Amino acid sequence: MTDRYCVFGNPISHSKSPVIHAAFAEQTGEAIDYSAIEAPLDDFAGAWHRFMAEGGRGANVTVPFKEQAFALCDTLSDRALRAGAVNTLVVGADQDSTHGDTTDGVGLVRDLFHHDVVLKGRRILVLGAGGAVRGVLEPLLAAGPASVLVVNRTAAKAAALAADFQDLGTIQGGGFEAATGQFDLVVNGTSASLAGELPPLPETLFAPGATAYDMMYGAEPTVFLRWASGLGAMPVDGLGMLVEQAAESFLLWRGKRPLTESVKYGLRLDLQTK
Ligand code: NDP
């Protein structure tokens, strides 16, 4: 029987994960069936256990279920424990236990690597202090930057987040007004772009040769990326992060790492022609 996987979310019809995993399966010769399932908002655990009982082997988890997925796991990776959230579920060999992991952070770092963005010794500014930012701080700090500053609309959340990751490197947190000086990489992990809004930031933010990364993506550049490129920074959107986190999940399930560039290219073409 073909091994079954899926992505859980609510809503989920917009998800690109089935297309991405179908491309990975074709490329690696793995016979998998990957679908999108809209789980009920109040019963994620029920939806997951039904999927398992029907022979499901693993799943991706997206908004708003990453914390509920974390809570039901029997075992967790260290990075999922740090993040307090799970975007990948893996069924144990006993077909009865659930292992949870998070691949969002590795996805971001791998995409930055593909864009030749150097992290070691660099000054990084991260905007936002929600689930996505919590998930990326460990791999960002592991890459050895000179410093990471996390700023958020609700300053206390950024300060608390920085305190949680203090043992992994030089990291501080505060409100947007704390974003002074220049940075080599600015990562927008807020959902402000969804509303077409720009966080209040000084125009002197970008060091020469800086990269501006928005975790969001779309057919058009986000307001943050338009603003940043106007100030001389290299703009990169979150489409690559989406594909890279999927590749990392595929590796966890199938033991094979798919190549990602052609899949990113296909998705980009698709976005631009719709
Ligand atoms: P959360 O809801 O957990 O956090 C939202 C964050 O955005 C908070 O820090 C919030 O600040 C801030 N925010 C919201 N609106 C504004 C605004 N108008 N101005 C300034 N700050 C604002 O969301 P997630 O962390 O899960 O997701 C954040 C973004 O990352 C989304 O756009 C999501 O699509 C994207 N993402 C992309 C991925 C990819 O693979 N490319 C993977 C995961 C996420 P406050 O705390 O003050 O409310």
TrEMBL record:
Keyword NADP annotated: yes
Any one GO molecular function term: shikimate 3-dehydrogenase (NADP+) activity
Reactions the enzyme catalyzes: shikimate + NADP(+) = 3-dehydroshikimate + NADPH + H(+)
Annotated SUPFAM superfamilies: Aminoacid dehydrogenase-like, N-terminal domain (SSF53223), NAD(P)-binding Rossmann-fold domains (SSF51735)
Binding site for NADP(+): 78, 128-132, 152-157, 215, 238
Segments forming domain Shikimate dehydrogenase substrate binding N-terminal: 7-89
Domain SDH C-terminal: 238-263
Domain Quinate/shikimate 5-dehydrogenase/glutamyl-tRNA reductase stretches: 118-193
Keywords: Amino-acid biosynthesis, Aromatic amino acid biosynthesis, NADP, Oxidoreductase
Pfam family, one: Shikimate_DH
Signal peptide feature range: none
Residues the record marks as active site: 66 (proton acceptor)
InterPro entries from the UniProt entry: Aminoacid_DH-like_N_sf, NAD(P)-bd_dom_sf, SDH_C, Shikimate_DH, Shikimate_DH-bd_N, Shikimate_DH_fam, Shikm_DH/Glu-tRNA_Rdtase
Any Gene Ontology biological process: amino acid biosynthetic process
Protein's UniProt keywords contain DNA repair: no
Gene Ontology CC annotations of this record: cytosol
CDD domains in alphabetical order: NAD_bind_Shikimate_DH
Protein residues bound to shikimate: 15-17, 62, 87, 104, 217, 245
Function summary: Involved in the biosynthesis of the chorismate, which leads to the biosynthesis of aromatic amino acids. Catalyzes the reversible NADPH linked reduction of 3-dehydroshikimate (DHSA) to yield shikimate (SA).
Subunit organization: Homodimer.
Family: Belongs to the shikimate dehydrogenase family.
Name of the protein in its database record: Shikimate dehydrogenase (NADP(+))
Taxonomy of the source species: Bacteria, Pseudomonadati, Pseudomonadota, Gammaproteobacteria, Oceanospirillales
